[in-house]
Amino acid sequence: MPKIVDKKSRRSEIAKIAMELSAQKGFDKTSIREITTHAGMGKGSFYDYFTDKEDLLEEIVQVLFEEWTRLIISKLENIDDPMEQLATLLREGSVMGDEFAQLMILYVDTWRRCVRDKSSDKFTQYFKSFLIDSKAAVAAIFENAKAQNQIREDVDSEVLATILIALIDGLILHYMVLKPDIDIDGVSQSFFKMLQDGMK
Amino acid sequence: MPKIVDKKSRRSEIAKIAMELSAQKGFDKTSIREITTHAGMGKGSFYDYFTDKEDLLEEIVQVLFEEWTRLIISKLENIDDPMEQLATLLREGSVMGDEFAQLMILYVDTWRRCVRDKSSDKFTQYFKSFLIDSKAAVAAIFENAKAQNQIREDVDSEVLATILIALIDGLILHYMVLKPDIDIDGVSQSFFKMLQDGMK
Amino acid sequence: MPKIVDKKSRRSEIAKIAMELSAQKGFDKTSIREITTHAGMGKGSFYDYFTDKEDLLEEIVQVLFEEWTRLIISKLENIDDPMEQLATLLREGSVMGDEFAQLMILYVDTWRRCVRDKSSDKFTQYFKSFLIDSKAAVAAIFENAKAQNQIREDVDSEVLATILIALIDGLILHYMVLKPDIDIDGVSQSFFKMLQDGMK
Amino acid sequence: MPKIVDKKSRRSEIAKIAMELSAQKGFDKTSIREITTHAGMGKGSFYDYFTDKEDLLEEIVQVLFEEWTRLIISKLENIDDPMEQLATLLREGSVMGDEFAQLMILYVDTWRRCVRDKSSDKFTQYFKSFLIDSKAAVAAIFENAKAQNQIREDVDSEVLATILIALIDGLILHYMVLKPDIDIDGVSQSFFKMLQDGMK
DNA sequence: AATGAATGAGAATTCATTCAT
DNA sequence: AATGAATGAATTCTCATTCAT
Fold first, then answer.
1. Crossing angle (nearest 10°) for helices A53-76 and A7-25
2. CA nearest A64: which of A115, A8, A102?
3. CA distance C61 to C53
4. Which of A153, A159, D59, D88 has the fewest C-beta atoms under 10 angstroms from its C-beta?
């Protein structure tokens, strides 16, 4: 009998390695050869786990959004106050550790593919779902805040969620370019202050 | 030295053509052959204007930020009211015509490269400058608004500018994936209303 | 040694499956993986029955000529009149059901290999034997016809057999390309009429 | 200015080299690398002359049928008597020099492709046209023979042409396997004698 | 100055075969 | 005995870049 291998977990392992490499060089620029070398396997074996390079990308994207979600949840789960949760989300989401940064690079890589290749509807679907789910989660936090009378009843949670998530993505983008020259902490504090008090 | 001027302008021309093609397929997937064909020149002649493909990207990035800036200015120049300018910026920037959308793809392409190749400091510099200049311009508008008593004196224009620009980029990103399912107009209106009145 | 008998019959079985697949896609384009999957066995087990793919081809070729012969015999065995046998041979051989057609593709595949690899004398031998045996069988029918005074005594049965067999192969070849646009029935009838009556 | 190259004639040249190699090993087994090496050019240059390996095959098939036709015509053009033309066609066509033999191998290769890949309709078309044209040409010779009272008026030229061409193809096939052990001359003489005089 | 012919490194993918279990 | 995991050689094709003309 041949060596017994857990195909699914090896698939994940390879995808994770490919993710790291892709985060550095971009998915397209990361060759199968490179991935398999790093995974300590022969070039041909790749195709025992994936039908395609495209198939690998699919696995990566799944892992990507899972990790991203997992990471965010881990940041928020020990916080009780909804407004504090949102502030943390904005602050932590934007500043990011290396782990987060790598994900963002892949996130943008994926985004590019969705927008460029009309073919990859599958990716677009993943992406949409992720954004929609995220929005729902954030909107729920705003609703909590309402319930605790921290924000006005007539505030539209959906809209605010959209704004907050977009803002996080935008800040991540900028932060990675401007890195030491941007005060994310200050920005997020000010933002919440302003949201609460208005500017006028 | 009229020849040199000609070279420079032809260089720009080629970059613009390459920009359009790259906006559709991504820079890496756009071949020299394709670019020169569209530019109505021989493949070899490319190297009379650029030392290599990387050199072309540099030119593209310059043109990119120029165009982006030009586009934004054109949207704002006939508006007098500062708050109206900001609202327009947010709305127009995010909803975007095709022109804007194409630029965004390249924008992200460039961003990708800045983040990937620590080597390409040059791109990072362009990018930083663009972000810093944009922020300054938006901050100036906020200052105008203050001067006209439309917002409180103690609001930090710099911080608000940072937020607004990040928000625009984030919304563009999301808009291009969610396209028909996101109400950018509603979002930007609500955002300004909230900024002005606070949430509490 | 019952095991050896089992091996032999399994070998035949596999060869038959491989034959069907090869008839559709050609031998070279049919992978071991495909064959073993269809045979309901592991890829590695293939090498318990064959030393390599070439060895499989050998088995296939044997089976091929056996099948071809079996098929022809089955068409002729219930016909008494020799001339009718020949006419049937020509008509049935050329028009062919799918069974015949599949064999023809393999037949040509094999022929190709004989001609290409001067090395594979083994295949050439199989092929020669098949042609020689077929010729002998057809010549015997002509002799029968002579004995029954259906054709002149001075006709050369050997030569006629050679012609008939070549004609069948040629017609099969053409029929498979021209399929609906060739009237094999008419052709074979006319041919026999002309053979019998002369053209002048 | 770059080297001036007659693309069309170089294309033909390469196709001819590929034809020779394919005649030995089969088209599929002949690699681009091999072809370009023999043509004294770099691997990449192949694609300056052909879009595809498939494109090469198309050129080969065209050249193949042209050469075949040219060869046959050259055998027949100095013969006046129609029956002699037909006899020559059968004899020469079947015995073949090396040139003819190579063509036959490719001919069969092409045939296989037509029959196997339903996709390659283009090749099937070439093949059909070739067969139809050949039949028409041979039928015309039979009509000549009729006009000169060498064969009966009621003989069907079309049918006879079909038979003759199929017989030639079949004999070629067999000849290449049986080579020294088949007396093509005797066969063709007997065939015509029998056609003329009948067998009864 | 301009060109396109030529090139070869490198990419994804396939597959017969081996071998540890 | 049977298996399928692993492998690497080989294949087609792309493309930035060079260079003779």
1. 80
2. A102
3. 13
4. A153
CATH number at residue C168: 1.10.357.10
- Interchain contact, D178 vs C131, CB within 8 Å: yes
pLDDT value, residue C96? 63
Considering the domain boundaries, does residue D1 fall inside one?
no
Locate all alpha helices (DSSP H) within chain D, ordered by sequence.
7-25, 32-38, 46-49, 53-76, 82-95, 98-116, 121-147, 157-178, 184-197
Entry pTM: 0.87
CA of A87 to C1' of F12 (A): 54
Residue D2 lies in a domain: no
CA of C131: how far to CAs of C80, C96, D168, in Å? 23, 19, 16
DSSP string, chain A: -PPP--HHHHHHHHHHHHHHHHHHH-TTTS-HHHHHHHTTS-GGGHHHH-SSHHHHHHHHHHHHHHHHHHHHHHHHTT---HHHHHHHHHHHHHH--HHHHHHHHHHHHHHHHHHH-TT-HHHHHHHHHHHHHHHHHHHHHHHHHHHTTSS-TTS-HHHHHHHHHHHHHHHHHHHHHHGGG--HHHHHHHHHHHHHH---
Q: Which chain C residues are closer than 8 Å to D132 by Cβ?
A: 178
Please give the Cα distance from A56 to A19 (Å, whole number): 10
- Half-sphere exposure (CA, 13 Å, Cβ side) for C165? 26
CA distances from B71 to B63, B67, B130 (A): 12, 6, 14
State how many domains chain D has.
1
Residue A40 counted as domain residue: yes
For residue B154, name the pLDDT band (cuts at 50, 70, 90): confident
Q: Which of A100, A124, A173 to mutate to test the interface with B (most CBs of B within 10 A)?
A: A173
Check if C28 contacts D (Cβ < 8 Å): yes
Share of chain B above pLDDT 90, in %: 34
Q: Which pLDDT tens digit goes with each residue over D117-129? A: 765 678 888 888 8
* C-beta atoms surrounding A108 within 10 Å: 21
B132's tokens: 């810093």
How many C-beta atoms lie closer than 10 Å to residue D136's C-beta?
Answer: 12
Nearby residues of B33 by Cβ (< 8 Å), 6 or more positions away: B43
| C87 interfaces chain D, CB cutoff of 8 Å | no
Residue B2 domain flag: no
* Range of the structural domain that residue C104 is part of: 7-199
Subunits touching C (CB < 8 Å, at least 3 pairs)?
Answer: D
pLDDT in tens, C67-114: 888 888 888 888 988 888 888 888 877 766 666 777 788 888 888 888
Chains A and B touch (3+ CB pairs under 8 A): yes
CA A2 from centroid of its chain's CA atoms: 38
If you average pLDDT over residues C178-184, what whole number do you get? 81
* B57 and A CB contact within 8 Å: no
Q: Chain A closest CA to B197's CA: distance in Å?
A: 4
